[in-house]
Amino acid sequence: MPHKGFTLWFTGLSGAGKSTLANRLAQEFRQREYKVELLDGDEVRTHLSKGLGFSKEDRDTNVRRIGYVARLLSRNGVIAITAAISPYRDTRNEVRREHREFVEVYAEAPIEKLAERDVKGLYKKALAGEVKNFSGISDPYEPPLNAEVVVQTDRESVDESLDRILTYLEEKGFIDAEAPVAAGGY
Amino acid sequence: MPHKGFTLWFTGLSGAGKSTLANRLAQEFRQREYKVELLDGDEVRTHLSKGLGFSKEDRDTNVRRIGYVARLLSRNGVIAITAAISPYRDTRNEVRREHREFVEVYAEAPIEKLAERDVKGLYKKALAGEVKNFSGISDPYEPPLNAEVVVQTDRESVDESLDRILTYLEEKGFIDAEAPVAAGGY
User: Fold this and answer.
1) Terminal-to-terminal C-alpha distance of chain B
2) Could you say which of A156, B54, B96, B145 would form a disulfide bridge with A160 (CB–CB 3.0 to 4.6 Å)?
3) Residue B33 region, left (φ>0) first, then alpha (ψ -120 to 50), else beta?
4) Which CATH class is domain B6-110+142-171?
5) CB atoms B76 and A37 under 8 Å
């Protein structure tokens, strides 16, 4: 068995690198021929949560649905990777409790830096009051207190963050350590 | 490999036996230690479709969501069994097109018999006009034209219907034929 099923749950502010890391990990796992599904933004909004907005209630519904699907997948041996902001601690913990194997990864970066970088131009709008319910500005973001992995995406490169996540998963036996390339086989 | 992933999609009127058959099959597969998930009524309504009603649009959304989750599961080697009425042919076929392995089972029974038996008392209410959007009475039910299996639940026993479904799955290579019990091993 190269891996067991588990859910890798990213949380973090907009622009903190959740989707980038989630996509790179999914790619890495596919290369290793692991079973993996990525439940990210558009896909989830289209298939599970069309019509939901960004109120606390709607966000919680969205997070619970993603959690439900991730749970079905992970208990059947799939690596389910999610990348929703999932700003509310209690709701994330509720999803965690329903899982057997759950790894929370907090993509942490100071909001000042994210606002400065502002890849999608959303922080500018949020700070100008043009976007309502923006996590961390006009809406709460509750960081995890006991995430299995914290990656500091303002200070680490993507590769460094990836390495730290993979190392955690290997050390805890979620995935096999990559076999070192043998010099001459045997 | 004892089985490959596929979706077993029941369709049929209320009371036609979809849930009964779906539950029995899930039980049978679990006994064979297959990976199986049952996406049925309450579970789905709670986790995926809370707030949806019974208009065409809402039913279609419900069916598409179930289809999405079934697809994720089945393409990862799980047997996903669904048991929603799923009354609209086009929507079922849309779900089918998104699948690699899809087996539609039509639980067929004349509406007169279902109304007569009326296990949940719903037909009486629907015929009295007290239930709106009741498939087959105040709302359409479009039977499949090319279902892989048709079980005639008013004329067959549950065991007979089960046998026919299992035989189809074995013949088409979705599951292994049950090994006959050896008299003395070898």
Assistant:
1) 22
2) A156
3) left
4) alpha beta
5) yes
Q: Domain A6-109+140-171: state its class.
A: alpha beta
Q: Is residue A86 annotated as part of the catalytic site, yes or no? A: yes
ipTM of the complex: 0.91
Q: Which two tokens stand for residue B55?
A: 């208009």
Cα separation, B4 vs B76, in Å, equals: 9
DSSP per-residue string spanning B6-64 = EEEEEE--TTSSHHHHHHHHHHHHHHTT--EEEE-HHHHHHHT-TT--SSHHHHHHHHH
**Which residue of chain B comes nearest to A47, CA vs CA?**
B65
DSSP state of A180: P
Q: Do B37 and A61 touch (CB under 8 A)?
A: no
| Helices vs. strands in chain A: H and E counts, helices first | 7, 5
d(CA A130, CA A137): 11
Structure tokens at B170: 């074995």
| Chain A nearest CA to B79, separation (Å) | 10
In this complex, is the C-beta atom of A47 within 8 Å of any C-beta atom belonging to chain B? yes
C-alpha B22/C-alpha B10 separation (Å) is 8
SS3 (DSSP) at B93: helix
Q: Which of residues 67 through 86 in chain A touch B, CB cutoff 8 A?
A: 68-69, 72-73, 76-78
CB A102 within 8 A of CB A9: yes
Domain locations along chain B: 6-110+142-171
Residue range B72-104, pLDDT digits in tens: 999 999 999 999 999 999 999 999 999 999 999
Whether A50 sits inside 8 A of B61 (CB atoms) is yes
Cβ contact (<8 Å) for B37 and A76? yes
Please identify which of the residues B86, B135, B138, B161 carries the catalytic annotation. B86
Residue-wise pLDDT for B117-174, tens only, equals 998 999 999 999 999 899 999 999 999 999 999 999 999 999 999 999 999 999 999 9
